Each structure stands twice: as structure tokens, then as C-alpha cells.
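Subject: design request, 547 residues
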């Protein structure tokens, strides 16, 4: 009997072209990460802190050295970022550069994270396009060298999105918890993460429903794993200190819907800030036209602009719609509600812009040859490079300080070099900065900080401590009105002792009084009494003595 030979199994090997493109992608991604790091590093220590940067840094120092439970200092932000900041101070020392290192690192790590999300959804070309858009994003570059909470918030939100897209419900919950416990705005990510988990198992079968609810259950466990211990920590403070969530509502106001007549003005304000997400009109035009055309084909025509069959998947289409709807809703909420118009609130849109660029590259350039794709990618990078370089030099009106606080660190350094013994430093707008830059000097008792609301209060308070040296650092943009004559009315004078950038250091002194004959106390009589001839003059006893 003839036995047929067993069929041999042929193992499909990737083509040389695929291996070459994969290697190119890895090398290009490594180069983009290094480029993103190089663009985010120049502003590490160039500018002093802005207001909130100084506040967060003071809170972190307080938690590190004095009060880890925040029983005396009450932050209005959840504690995760403050603890991270305290760890940076412990490792690198308490400086403004050390405070900015964590955000630079997480901002750089967001570049490959966005690339892997785009690769999983749309392929390697989408990953490269998204990495270029994220590495050169002017908005992300401007906020990386800061001590704000937002770069960590965006990194945690991107990690949650990647975990949810890979059906890792536990890690999606963990990273969403990190985002929420970094900043209250982390709650905005919750609908996107939950919807992404649902989109992973859209099949109406019983197995699909079981997988969906199993992922949601793991998601809940991961969320509680981060949030429950922090809520418990917060509950230990409630008898003596309010919760950061209560303080956040108190300091920034509750989220409320605005009347429609206020929407247009806010739309203009938010649009002016959102323009810096690319800071390039050609890129914005190409991005908006491409996204609109692609969404029209995806929704109205039921297809995808890409030729690659993986982009026709219902799961992939649902992801695209989720990202687009979330980004639109995120921006709309900021327009129609009472959210304060601050530039850093739009930072979560930076990864969405990068993912949109990746989707367009996968959709419209997937069928082209690799050199053609490389040319288009190079053109986009060249368009993004000028605004990215401008952002790296602090030339965009977003992010950290751009000159308002120029000279402040030098002014505080000058004060620390003065010989002083429990001097008084008056402040009205620089209290948090003084607490950070003079932290050690205040701890030693070299300086006492005193807040004043106006010149009359300052002059009155200064007249009550004639035996102590008194200093004032005055910004150009916040002069104290009528201070000279208020001090003069109390026998004090204002002397300029140093000028540093946009700040002037004054010393409040008590001028020496001129000598006058009538006000000098003497043991003798103030005048000679009338006396008889030949008699000695009568003398007056010293005041307070007995005759």
C-alpha cells in the first residue's frame, strides 16, 4: 500500500521589505524620542516659576519635610503629583530644575506611547506619523519643562487608553485612577476609557458580553486599587482639613453650564489657545480637511479611506469615532461651561491631534510606496519644526513663564546673601515664590514673610517693628501705589537697593532724625531763673529724682 507523504508545513516568513520597514520604524522612533527630549530640555531652568508652579513646589516641600498628611497646608489638587514632586526634590534637591524633570520625562515617554496606540490601530506608518506629530507638538513642548500637573495627567490618560485598547481592563483602571488622583480633570478620561473597553467586544454573542463585563470588572478593581487608598488617606484629614476636591470647587468654582450668549466669546478664546496645538495654518488646514473627509467616508459611505483591510474592521472604525467624538466633546465642554480659560487645560488634546495625524497617514498614504510616504512625512515634519523650535525657546504664549518673572530668582538670591537677623519680607503677589526660593532661610528664621493688601497696611505694620530690617520685592507689573508718602507719614523711607530684571528690591528704613536743641533732655534747668545779685542760681532737680 502506497502511503502518501505527509504534507509539509510552510512557515510564512516576513518579506525583506517588511523587515526593512520595521527596522526603519524602530530607528526613526528612537530618533524622534531623542529629538523630542532635545526640544523639551532647553527651558529646564531658564525661567522662574509661574504662580501655580511655585504653589505645587511649596506643597511638595511641605509634604516632604514637615507635614506629609497636609494637615496644616491644604492643597486643592489630589496628592499623586505632589508626592512625585517631593520625590524629585528628595532625589535632586529642591530647585526649579528638579521640579521640572518629572514632567519632561513623562512628556518624552508620551511620544512612544502615542506611537504604539497608533500602530495597534492603523499600522506602522500611522505610528511614525503620530510619533512625528507628538514629538514636534508645540503645545506638548511648551508644557514639558513646567511644574504643572497636566503632563502627568496626559501621560496617565494615554496609558489608560492604550491599556483599554489592548483589553487590559485592570491596567486601564489603574492608569485612569492615576489620572484622576493627579488632577480632577482626569475624570474627563473616564467616558473614553469605558467606551474603549466596550468597543473591544462589540459582538452581540454571549461570549462577547461575558468578555465585556469581565473587562469592566477588572477595570473597576484597578481603579479602586489606586483611588481607594488615597480616599482613605484623605478621610484621615477631614476633621482638621478639607478634601482637595472640596477646595478645588471652592477655589475654581463648580462646573456649571453657561448661557448661550457667552459661548461665542469663549469659543474665540479657546480657539486662540487651541491653535498652538500645531501653531501652523497649513497643518491645521490639512488636518481638518483630512479628518472631515475621512469621517465622511467612514460614516456616510460606510467605508474607510484606507486600502488596508484591517482599517475596515468595525472595532477600528469604532475607535476612530470614539477618539473624534471625545476630542470634540472635550473642547465643547470647555467652551460652554465655567471651566476657566487656561492654556494648560487643552493639553489632553495634543495626543488626539497626533493620533489624528497617524490615522490620516494610514488612510490616505497606505497605498503609496515607502519613499513617497517618507516624503510626505518629511514635509509634515518640516512644517512642524519651526513652531516646535519656537516653543523650545519659550517663544509661544503658552506653557511656563516667558519673561514676566525675569530676574526673580536673582532677587531672592541677592536677599539670601544679605546679613540679616529675622528680617521681615513683605509680599502681596510673590508669597508662594518666596516660600519656595527662601525655604531654607525661612526655616532658619532669617526671614519672616508678611502679606499686605495695600500700602496703608504695609506702612502701619512696618512702623511697629522699628528694630528689624524690612524688605520688599516689587514687580514692574504690580506696583504698590502711594507707598512712598504712606511710609513718610510714619517717619519711614523706601530705599531702592537692587534691580533684577523686572523686579526691584526695596528696603524700608527709618531715617535718622535731625538734632534739635529744644527736644534734647538735660539734667540742668531749661532756663536760668531770676536770682538776686550775689546769690547762686537755683537748680532744678532731675526729673524723676527726689529733691
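Subject: RE: design request

Done. Sequence follows.
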Amino acid at each position: 500500500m502506497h502511503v502518501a507523504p505527509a504534507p509539509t508545513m510552510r512557515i510564512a516568513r516576513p518579506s525583506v521589505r517588511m523587515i526593512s520597514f520595521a527596522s526603519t520604524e524602530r530607528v526613526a522612533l528612537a530618533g524622534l524620542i531623542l529629538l523630542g527630549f532635545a526640544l523639551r530640555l532647553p527651558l529646564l531652568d531658564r525661567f522662574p516659576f509661574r504662580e501655580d508652579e511655585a504653589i505645587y513646589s511649596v506643597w511638595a516641600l511641605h509634604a516632604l519635610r514637615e507635614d506629609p498628611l497636609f494637615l496644616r497646608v491644604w492643597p486643592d489638587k489630589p496628592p499623586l503629583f505632589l508626592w512625585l514632586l517631593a520625590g524629585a526634590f528628595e532625589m535632586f534637591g529642591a530647585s526649579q530644575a528638579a521640579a521640572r524633570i518629572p514632567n519632561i520625562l513623562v512628556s518624552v515617554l508620551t511620544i512612544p506611547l502615542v506611537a504604539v496606540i497608533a500602530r495597534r490601530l492603523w499600522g506602522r506608518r500611522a505610528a511614525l506619523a503620530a510619533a512625528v506629530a507628538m514629538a514636534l507638538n508645540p503645545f506638548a513642548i511648551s508644557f514639558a519643562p513646567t511644574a504643572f500637573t497636566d503632563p502627568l495627567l496626559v501621560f496617565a490618560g494615554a496609558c489608560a487608553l492604550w491599556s483599554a485598547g489592548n483589553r487590559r481592563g485592570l491596567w486601564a483602571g489603574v492608569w485612569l485612577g492615576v489620572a484622576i488622583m493627579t488632577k480632577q480633570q482626569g475624570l474627563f478620561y473616564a467616558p473614553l476609557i469605558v467606551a474603549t473597553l466596550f468597543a473591544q467586544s462589540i459582538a452581540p454573542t454571549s461570549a462577547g458580553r461575558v468578555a465585556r463585563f469581565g473587562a469592566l470588572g477588572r477595570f473597576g478593581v484597578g481603579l479602586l486599587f489606586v483611588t481607594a487608598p488615597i480616599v482613605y488617606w484623605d478621610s484621615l484629614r477631614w476633621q482638621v482639613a478639607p478634601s482637595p476636591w472640596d477646595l478645588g470647587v471652592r477655589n475654581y468654582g463648580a462646573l456649571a453650564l453657561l448661557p448661550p450668549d457667552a459661548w461665542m466669546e469663549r469659543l474665540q478664546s479657546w480657539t486662540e489657545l487651541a491653535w498652538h496645538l500645531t501653531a501652523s495654518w497649513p497643518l491645521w488646514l490639512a488636518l481638518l480637511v483630512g479628518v472631515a473627509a475621512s469621517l465622511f467616508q467612514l460614516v456616510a459611505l460606510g467605508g474607510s479611506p484606507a486600502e488596508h483591510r484591517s482599517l475596515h474592521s468595525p472595532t477600528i472604525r469604532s475607535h476612530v469615532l470614539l477618539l473624534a467624538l471625545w476630542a470634540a466633546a472635550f473642547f465643547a465642554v470647555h467652551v460652554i461651561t465655567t471651566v476657566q480659560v487656561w492654556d494648560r487645560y487643552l493639553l489632553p488634546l495634543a495626543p488626539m491631534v497626533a493620533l489624528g495625524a497617524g490615522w490620516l497617514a494610514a488612510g490616505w498614504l497606505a497605498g503609496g510606496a515607502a519613499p513617497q510616504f517618507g516624503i510626505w512625512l518629511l514635509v509634515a515634519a518640516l512644517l512642524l519644526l519651526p513652531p516646535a523650535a519656537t516653543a523650545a525657546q519659550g517663544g509661544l504664549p503658552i506653557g511656563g513663564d516667558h519673561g514676566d518673572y525675569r530676574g526673580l530668582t536673582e532677587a531672592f538670591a541677592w536677599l539670601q546673601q544679605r546679613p540679616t537677623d529675622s528680617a521681615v519680607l513683605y509680599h502681596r503677589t510673590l508669597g508662594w515664590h518666596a516660600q519656595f526660593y527662601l525655604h531654607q532661610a525661612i526655616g532658619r528664621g532669617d526671614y519672616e514673610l508678611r502679606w499686605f493688601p495695600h500700602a496703608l497696611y504695609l506702612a502701619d505694620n512696618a512702623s511697629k517693628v522699628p528694630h528689624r530690617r524690612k524688605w520688599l520685592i516689587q514687580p514692574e507689573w504690580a506696583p504698590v501705589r502711594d507707598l512712598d508718602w504712606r511710609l513718610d507719614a510714619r517717619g519711614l523711607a523706601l530705599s531702592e537697593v537692587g534691580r533684577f530684571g523686572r523686579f526691584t528690591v526695596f528696603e524700608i528704613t527709618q531715617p535718622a532724625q535731625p538734632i534739635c536743641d529744644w527736644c534734647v533732655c538735660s539734667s540742668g534747668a531749661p532756663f536760668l531763673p531770676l536770682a538776686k545779685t550775689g546769690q547762686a542760681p537755683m537748680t532744678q532737680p532731675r526729673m524723676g529724682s527726689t529733691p
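Residues 408-509 form a domain with the D-Maltodextrin-Binding Protein; domain 2 fold (CATH 3.40.190).
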